[in-house]
Amino acid sequence: MTGTRLYWRLVGISIRSQMQYKVSFILQSLGQMIVTGGEFLGIWALFDRFGTLQEWAFHEIAVLYGLANVAFSVADALTNGFDSAGYLIRKGEFDRVMVRPRSTVLLLLGYEFTVRRIGRFLQGAAILSYGLVVSSESGAPLGLVGTAATLLWAIVGAVALFVGIRIIQACVSFKTVQSIEVMNVFTYGGVYASGYPFTIYVRWFRMLFTYGVPLAAVTYYPALLLMGRLDPGGAVRWIGWVSPIAGVAFLMVSLVIWRFALRWYSSTGT
Amino acid sequence: MALIEVDSICKRYVRRARTTGRGAALRGLFVREKVVTDALSDVSFTIEAGELVGYIGPNGAGKSTTVKLLAGILTPDSGTCRINGLVPWEERREHVARIGVVFGQRTQLWWDLPVIESFDLLADIYRLDRTHYETTRDRLIDRLSIGPFLEQPVRQLSLGQRMRADLAASLLHRPRILFLDEPTIGLDAPGKLAIRDFVRTINAEEGVTVILTTHDMDDIEALSSRLMIINSGRIVADGAPSILTDELARNREVVVDVTPAHGGEARPPEGTLAAALERSRTRWSLEGGRFRFDVDPTVLSVPELIRLVGEQYTMRDISIETAPIEEVVRRIYARTDGGANAPTASS
What we know:
The structure holds two protein chains of two kinds.
Chain A: H1 3-19, H2 22-50, H3 58-78, H4 80-83, H5 85-90, H6 93-98, H7 104-109, H8 118-137, H9 143-176, H10 188-194, H11 203-212, H12 215-218, H13 220-227, H14 239-242, H15 245-268
Chain B: E1 4-17, H1 24-30, E2 33-47, E3 52-56, H2 63-70, E4 78-83, H3 92-96, E5 99-103, H4 115-125, H5 130-143, H6 159-171, E6 177-181, H7 189-206, E7 209-213, H8 217-223, E8 226-231, E9 234-239, H9 241-248, E10 252-260, H10 271-280, E11 283-287, E12 290-295, H11 302-312, E13 313-322, H12 325-336
Parallel strand pairs in B: 3-7, 3-8, 5-6, 6-7
Antiparallel strand pairs in B: 1-2, 1-4, 8-9, 10-12, 10-13, 11-12
């Protein structure tokens, strides 16, 4: 069986076993929807009081926020195996992965497809749709097909980026054997930061999320195209069509780091 | 060439220690002390195809580390190992496709899946040919009597059922080598017997090489043709279980119930018996008409001892026992201990 088919098989099994606990699934999905929805309600309250943020309108914030949350919820659902790496190592479950004649990345991706992340996904998708509709009413230039293609490409880049962060997080937990909260700065923190235009942040922060962990490349720049705006920082207009590649590149780098981390794991045997 | 060749493997764990005392938490941020444990020191052995090897040692002796190395999970610091001509940790995927591993403490199966679906999934993971797989699977189901709970999710199985399902799962891809890490742990007596019976069968009939770690000496006595004992990271004994007993625990305990020849209390040995006991330095005791001799048969043979007792007393009953293997192993642990794993029992 090829890797892709095995992956879908594992995902199918994971979904079925989560559906054995339906009440828990529904409550957790709803819970996540309410928590992330509450977060956006806070943003709405601010805009309701102050009108705009620098010269960004509420619907533009909605595009940024929605894009980041949709992408992160997908990545979050895909990478529970990496997120739980510390736990798996402590429990000795990771050895189980190592005695299978398959790629460890494939097996960890297949470890669980976390369906309850649909709470954040639906919430993010609703806000993203709202933002896109208002943007198009106020004259966004891409048209339906252009918007869809740009959006999809941005989501691919952003998902790749978040998956990459999770893989690096798992690499670090080989050493610490604890799940490390510090990486949440880049996942949960990154999603939250992407909810606002990067121009509002101080320089070092922008640099970190542009060149270190290229979050701006997968959310902010493509979002500018979607809302039909130019970057107040002066970046060329088409940058948003190119920049999501940075997310894919980040994922590639994280996979290389994973290989080294595996070697390290087997030579130290934490 | 032997199936498994392990040559002078060393494995050392370095752990960062937490310091204690005043200001330790703060100091720990900057200076951390290293604690080095030699998990394996210069371990060498070879195992031929078809052997059934019992691998024992106290907790922390290096058993699991050895199994993890052989299974390709760990890399040693030095030394070499070839299994089927492959270096396990360098060609992990090729290697693990040819071995079966069962960790008694944790299942290899999917907790929420029916047993049969775990098997099917493993067939996909190992890329098994459908018809071959089905033949193998059905035979394993039959031999391990898995049929009655084939459709139940693994989480609902008893430990004995789960262990049988795990054994079957480890053999679906027809490995020539099987590593069993404490396969009978926590099982009841019938459960243990079923596992032993099956392991013996696949070794004898199908020639699967089995390496079995255990704390249960009954497993060893029932199964192994060869026993390797590890303590403090070194192999301290390697041979047939009977040779170990012969060499390390030759003494027999001979218990004889006697009636004094002339009535009354049995008197202590005299004459030839007393002389023989003295000469062979046999320890003995006599209490309420019951003799206990701790005799080394290479110095004073058991028939000779009994003949001498018979000259002086009327014997009512005789029993002869060999020191149990637990006792032998405990003595070996105590004698070879590096200090870290001092046995709690004392002789």
